[in-house]
Amino acid sequence: MTQVPDQPTQKRQRGRPSRISREAIARAALEIGVDQATIPAIAAHLKVDHSSLYHHVAGRNDVISIAAELAINELDWRAPAATDWRSELIILTDAIWTLYERHPGLAESIHQASVTPSSGIRSFAESVEKLQLKGFSLDEAVLAVDILVDMVGECFLGWWSTTKPEADGRTRKERIIAIWEDEATKLPDKAEQINAMVDIMKVGARKWWERKRDLVLAGIAVTHAQKAGGSDKVQT
Questions:
Q1: pTM of the prediction?
Q2: Cα(195)–Cα(60) distance, rounded to whole angstroms?
Q3: Per-residue pLDDT tens listing for the chain (236 residues)
């Protein structure tokens, strides 16, 4: 079992063992959903008085931080040693997408820098090191991992925001599609291009992300091949 460091904000009194811990609080936050994990909600989930949580955590930001640490520590993102670099990066970003889907609100907290999990920093460094072992320079490896980690988060957040319901009962995505379709009828000479984007929106986030990812991977492959061949220029 993954352990969350126990760093209570107050010294515990002697007596009967506590019914709650930092790890229990972190798990409760993940079960509720990071976006819904308030101190009262977590206390209700654990069936304890909310004031007792402050013996273990400093507040909501502390809760989100330890929840993120726990979620990333338990994420299955490591590829087998013999995996090629391209598959390595696909496995990594697929795992990150799954992490964000599994824990609503976590992507937003990480990408807004509300939390900076040390487990995420370690995972980043390990991913870079794996690319170095596969022939990438340090600079190439850092850039490749950083681009893809940023992109998967931004793509996920962009699409996730469109799933929220609006006052008329439609999702934001449905409203945006309707606007684009209306523009296609108003601009028949641009309808083909506009409707192509409408089709993308209807297919869904994951498929569109995979196409973006594959385009970036193709660019990384060209750059890496050129550098390995001793050329400073990237031909496209």
A1: 0.80
A2: 43
A3: 444 545 444 444 444 445 689 999 999 999 999 989 999 999 999 999 989 999 999 998 899 999 999 999 988 888 888 899 999 999 999 999 999 999 988 998 888 777 788 999 999 999 999 999 999 999 999 999 999 999 999 999 988 888 888 888 889 899 999 999 999 999 999 999 999 999 988 888 888 899 999 999 999 999 999 988 754 444 44
